[in-house]
Fold these 2 entries.
Entry 1:
Amino acid sequence: MAAENLAVSRETFDNVILPVYAPAQFVPVKGKGSRVWDQQGKEYIDFSGGIAVTALGHCHPALVETLKSQGETLWHTSNVFTNEPALRLASKLIAATFAERVFFGNSGAEANEAAFKLARYYACKKHSPFKSKIIAFHNAFHGRTLFTVSVGGQPKYSDGFGPKPADIVHVPFNDLAAVKAVIDDHTCAIVVEPIQGEGGVMPATPEFMQGLRALCDQHNALLVLDEVQSGMGRSGKLFAYEHYGIKPDIITTAKALGGGFPVSAMLTTHEIASVMAPGVHGTTYGGNPLACAIAETALDIINTPEVLNGVDARREQFVSALQKINQQFDILSEIRGKGLLLGAVLNAQHASKARDILNASAAEGLMVLTAGSDVIRFVPSLVIEPTDIAEGMARFARAIAKVLN
Ligand SMILES: *Cc1c(COP(=O)(O)O)cnc(C)c1O
């Protein structure tokens, strides 16, 4: 085991990794369910879920079993050859959604890149090469490729990298009038997260989503939903669009799709997919058998009434624990989000303390996330044990007490 002969620690990070992250001061080495242990053997409760990825907790036995069995069978073929796990996963995603065609990638950004390219290509082939305008939203997050940061609504992520893809317009989220003011027949797509994740755990209102659908229909534009964070059961339904009574044209999914193994997908209709042809788009690893086999197992488990109904029960436990903490400390102004995509919004008096609370939580043995400077974000396993929620919330209360003192 040559790899274990080289001692590494958190300090190694600063010497060997590109400094685009500032990870916590501890290094996790092992996880089981919703508990994680670091190099020193300290135990943590995981409310961060690897940023809404480990939806079945760490090392779920069924996922480990598939990893092992597929790992001894076939890992990779390239798209010069198709494979059974990809065909099964695509068939199951289609059976579970509005969709009729699937494209596999390896990350959320890659699925979104495919979605944005498809929306433009479809408009170009079916309407006009000038129908290229994309309407997107302030504070949106769609990934880190140049196209996806440009569609994303945070200029700090897209500035400094040279000329950006053109014809992208940003307007305020949940503001239908603002969309009406900019949409026209040159618009090819509206791109939106049903629940903005990185942008502060902000759900779209039903009127907004239904209004976007109607505007897309009026202008022959596609409604593209980024469900990278909100999908795969996170909202209490398999995909968050199901809460809104609308049918999208394209959705993207990643994060929880592989339960921790990198895989993503873009889902669309046969009609829209039919403009594509061999060679127009692609990716070497996309749809590889190892990733797809694991995602198939994750989907089989998540897309059941037990798991999906369990999301709302767990949400209630989180919300009531947070309300109790708020009665004691008067620190929150709002608890928002859907299902187990939960945002605890700090009130004006404590608005800049999210990062301090995250650090204090780690010290108490709890992993949480932030979403901006004033929101604590909880995106735990969808099957987290009630006892882990209770213990994690006790640790959270201690962390808050420390920050306030
Ligand atoms: C995380 C995220 C992405 C980017 O996914 P990557 O796998 O990091 O490329 C895109 N959209 C949303 C809504 C996300 O939360």
Note: The mean pLDDT is 97.
Entry 2:
Amino acid sequence: MSRFLNDRLASLEAYTPGEQPQDKAYIKLNTNESPFPPSKSVLSAVNRAAAKRLRLYCDPECKVLTNSLAKLYGVESKNIFLSNGSDDILNFAFMAYGDMGAIFPDITYGFYKVFAELHGVNTEIIPLCDDFSIDSDAFMGKNKLIVIANPNAPTGMALALDTIEEIVKSNPDGVVLIDEAYVDFGGESCVNLTKKYDNLLCVGTFSKSRSMAGARLGFAVASDALISDLEKIKYSTNPYNINTLTQLAGAAAVRDNDYYMNNCQKIIKNREYTVNELEKLGFTVLPSSANFVFAKSDKISGKELYLKLKEKGVLIRHFEKDRIKDFNRITIGSAKEMRIFIQKTKEILGEF
Ligand SMILES: *Cc1c(COP(=O)(O)O)cnc(C)c1O
């Protein structure tokens, strides 16, 4: 760090992304990517002709992609915002609405805290209940920027749509941001509620269910007033923040929506298999509506299991955080990957 950095950034603790090792081929169950490749139309959209268009600036309005997403979700184009990954949108939301103070659970996506600090936002942290569910009552009548991942990460547990609506209704003077990164794996989307409530910001991503983590594409669905706030920030920072290839890939992915939703069904099946096998091995597994499970064993610590699996070529995610350090978050991959994960876990437990 230089002596020139401002005080707020000097004391900021940056987000630590999951490991993305480039040295050897792990079975990678640590950052909730899809085990399935992008669809055929995506692969053919990102071709030589598309690469030649990189000479020119991309469409800052992302018209084609915006219109196709609007159609998919049954809203108007003015209710869709696109950005460089949904992290970008979360960042914009803390920037735009942080002055009212922000409130989110203690155990949730680690980036919320980072964005709050980055923008000097006062935060109220609500502990999860003892069963690791979100204490929804604690979010009623706050009229702040409310940030909830639904399903939550890293627990995988979801809130019912009715509960989300109660939270939105009871905070008419606050913005309620629902982060739906994992909604396609069994959660209930609040997209339709955005037509009824002008304070609801529904955020999604192409990184998980749509096999495009490396392309960086996130979206928001909300009232036109909230969307124009986000547009204002985008046009004040980087209007060209979604590159040409990602725009083409994104539009192709929307055309192949059935392929991706079908993949989600496969993930759900593999999740059921994994939960079942882990429970047979004595693990406690939280009820997951996401493409990962959060599990702990009383035979081995979370850290030890993570390290031993890594030695055996399987990467999972461990968080060294008080309430959850006994747990590991395990991404649900292909059927074969999950069989290997279970096999290696059995070997490790057998050594004890
Ligand atoms: C993965 C994830 C994101 C980030 O998605 P990107 O679109 O890749 O930036 C946002 N929120 C949650 C809860 C996530 O797990």
Note: The chain has two domains: 7-37+258-350, 40-256.
